[in-house]
Design brief:
about 50% helix; mainly alpha; 10 helices
């Protein structure tokens, strides 16, 4: 009986400490969790086409800004439109794989591919892609495995204010509130 009591107290104490640590040191707790269990850092995204970043990046030697055209000039990187896909996928000559043939169907039908947005920030956060691209920040800093997996993946261990502030501190960028929280 006495042993069970102490085990119960120990479990409750560990839970209380974990809850306090999570809410007081949320970023640090999540970072520790993702380091211990890296498989939870990302999740596969269901898209109308299983876009293979590896083929486009590694085999065709295209950089991110080839398809995400606005990343060098605007806040949003943008999603490629069907006109860009048409350059290579107008016919099934280059498109032999089933997913690439889906692109050909969209191109022939003159229909935009209904991509699902993978990343989003709260409305009160401003993330100018162009500043990061001009400063040579690699896309993988925020987008992680996106260009290194065959399937579209969303990194869930990114996009925390503390993470952005750590990155700014390491690179000597401004941590002024209005750098990211202005309209």
């Amino acid at each position: 009986m006495r042993k069970g009591f102490f085990i119960s107290i120990g479990i409750i104490l560990v839970l209380v400490i974990a809850i306090v640590a999570y809410h007081r040191f949320q970023y640090e707790t999540k970072t520790a969790f993702f380091h211990l269990f890296p498989i939870f850092r990302w999740k596969s995204m269901d898209q109308p086409i299983l876009f293979n970043h590896l083929i486009h990046k590694e085999k065709l030697n295209l950089n991110c800004t080839f398809c995400h055209r606005y990343a060098e000039r605007r806040r949003s990187a943008g999603i490629p439109n069907i006109d860009l896909c048409r350059a290579c996928h107008a016919t099934d000559a280059m498109s032999k794989k089933p997913e690439a043939l889906k692109v050909v169907k969209y191109v022939r039908a003159e229909e935009e591919i209904p991509w699902k947005k993978m990343y989003g920030l709260p409305k009160f956060v401003v993330f100018p892609h162009w500043i990061h691209v001009q400063n040579g920040i690699d896309c993988s800093v925020c987008h992680g495995l996106t260009g290194k997996k065959e399937r579209p993946v969303k990194m869930v261990d990114r996009n925390y204010m503390a993470g952005c502030m750590d990155c700014h501190k390491k690179r000597g960028a401004s941590n002024d509130c209005y750098a990211c929280h202005s309209s």
